[in-house]
């Protein structure tokens, strides 16, 4: 059973790494698996030029991946060697491999940290929000694959226990279309003067996220959701202000309120936090 678990999960990881590389054009993708002793080991990779990072063992708090383990939140650096937000136990293997910009996202099933998904480039460039979003979506898909694999193994071990048939997971491109449609619907509702039509459009927006909605302990106002929808489309504060017909400072105020409510430090974190609670698709 344990060997089957490793085979199933390794297949899912290999598929995720290849898919992420192909969808983003990022040259390096890696996965670090959490071990029973609390360490993490980078045991699958695509695109590495050297063996410097192969099977690298990482403790919580060390480097980019270790910080992800400790905080259970995404971490990114545009220049690993000079980054002040991480520790530097692994500067030598990173330098040997020639990596500069790296992002890492946790993969968590239930409350168990299963590993860390990495993407990296061999040049000192900052990866944009689109790449960060694709890495995050790939991590979420991998979480679902792990969960489905676990459910199927439990069903095999106990044939009398019913198991739900796994549903098809939407690709990153399909999710992008859903999100863009949601954001544009909110912008359209914002421009409609008829109160009844505006309410109907807002109901449609709510229905788009209802399949993944979880119990919300944080309540966001309609205006705060409008601002987040603009941010999710990649709009600047000025562009969001023009879209919503309000001042840029007002947009900043709404965004500060959202980030405070969601415990986010960046616009990107706020969008992802809103998605986790089901406020955005």
From TrEMBL:
Annotated GO biological processes are: regulation of DNA-templated transcription
Tell me any Pfam family this protein matches: GerE
**Single GO MF annotation:** DNA binding
Which N-terminal residues, if any, form the signal peptide? none
Domain HTH luxR-type stretches:
213-278
- The answer, when asked if DNA-binding is one of the entry's keywords, is yes
Q: What is this protein called?
A: HTH-type transcriptional activator RamA
The organism's lineage is: Bacteria, Bacillati, Actinomycetota, Actinomycetes, Mycobacteriales
Q: Which gene encodes it?
A: ramA_2
């Amino acid at each position: 059973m344990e060997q089957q678990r490793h085979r199933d999960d390794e297949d899912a990881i290999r598929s995720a790494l290849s898919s992420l590389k192909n969808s983003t054009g990022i040259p390096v993708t890696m996965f670090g698996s959490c071990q029973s002793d609390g360490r993490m080991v980078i045991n699958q990779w695509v695109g590495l030029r050297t063996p410097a990072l192969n099977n690298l063992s990482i403790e919580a708090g060390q480097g980019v991946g270790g910080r992800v383990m400790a905080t259970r939140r995404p971490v990114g650096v545009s220049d690993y060697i000079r980054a002040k937000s991480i520790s530097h136990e692994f500067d030598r293997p990173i330098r040997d491999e020639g990596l500069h910009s790296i992002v890492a996202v946790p993969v968590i099933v239930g409350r168990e940290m299963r590993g860390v998904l990495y993407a990296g480039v061999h040049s000192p460039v900052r990866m944009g929000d689109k790449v960060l979003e694709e890495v995050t979506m790939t991590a979420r898909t991998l979480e679902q694959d792990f969960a489905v694999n676990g459910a199927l193994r439990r069903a095999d071990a106990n044939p009398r226990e019913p198991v739900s048939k796994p549903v098809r997971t939407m690709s990153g491109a399909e999710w992008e279309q859903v999100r863009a449609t949601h954001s544009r619907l909110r912008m359209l509702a914002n421009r409609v003067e008829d109160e009844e039509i505006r309410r109907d459009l807002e109901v449609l927006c709510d229905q788009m996220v209802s399949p993944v909605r979880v119990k919300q302990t944080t309540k966001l106002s309609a205006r705060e959701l409008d601002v987040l929808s603009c941010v999710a489309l990649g709009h600047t504060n000025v562009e969001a202000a023009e879209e919503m017909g309000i001042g840029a400072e007002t947009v900043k105020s709404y965004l500060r309120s959202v980030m405070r409510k969601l415990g986010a430090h960046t616009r990107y974190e706020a969008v992802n936090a809103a998605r986790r609670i089901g406020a955005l698709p």
